[in-house]
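Handout, page 2. Input:
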Amino acid sequence: MRYKALNKLCRHKHPYDLKATDQLFTDAIRENARYHASKCLEYRKILETFSCDLNNIKTIDDIHKIPFIPTLYFKRHELYSMPYKKMAIKATSSGTSSGLKSKVGMSYKDLYRGFKMIKRLFSYHKLWSLKRVNYFIFGYEPTKHTNVVIMKSANGFSKVAPAKKRYYAIKWDKETNQFKVDLDYMKKGLVKASKQRFPIRTIGFPAYTYFLLKEMQDEGIKLKMPKGSLVTMGGGWKQFYAEAVDKQAFYQVVKDVLGIEEENIVEFFGAVEHPVIFPDCKYHHMHIPIYSRVIIRDPDTFQPLPFGKMGLINLLSPMNHATPLTSVMTDDLGIIHQGCECG
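Output:
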């Protein structure tokens, strides 16, 4: 099957030009749904159950008619459109408090298109660099013991600029045969890095990043990281949601401890069940890239809500062909606003 609309969408130069790509996206999402219906019996049954005729998905105003699949479904069922052993990447989510994890896969063509998407988005946000950096990854060290997507994403991000060294906060302990959080190791690494000429980049869970920086702040540690240093984070607060702090408090701790200004802090939104990432702008707003569309739905009726209304976040994308992630309903709440100071 050829993906004419998707290929054209991936070649579009401006990663946030939604109006110019609305029809391309509609055609691509229809292509994607047809592909999964032809390769995945379960997905075809979902379309049939909701009487979804893909021929009726003609404009961007129609895409809400495509049945969404809740992320919880992927945590309880495996749903694939190609043999598992032929997938280029298999990944799982970080897991819920009950231990449930989503399992998704990507084909080699998905990977190629994903790289083009990352290249264009990161170029727009000026994240690429040829200068070597010290990476502080507040996530899992790559091992055979886990394949969570946040580990794969963090390791991939550490190639956006050449790595001098990678520090990992969560490492495999051979004695206990489990992962262990070692923030003291990260602290010593940050102090050492502040005395070098290489910028740093932090990646990973904001909770661990904040816990370490707050501890250092309480100890009176004040560092000045080299010019070009960035604090990046994603993955949410997970089981630490009760300890979550507002963004301004987080930015202030970063400035106090690392000497990194707010303009050099970048947050990403993403989900293992959605093959698109959302970097924030300099005003810390998440913008929808052309490879995705977001529908905010009423939690009771699931009807689409207008701008400015809070509801459940429904993510749509035609970027994955190994797993039917065409339209996914998260359990996150969100609001879509029109316009931003960044333009």
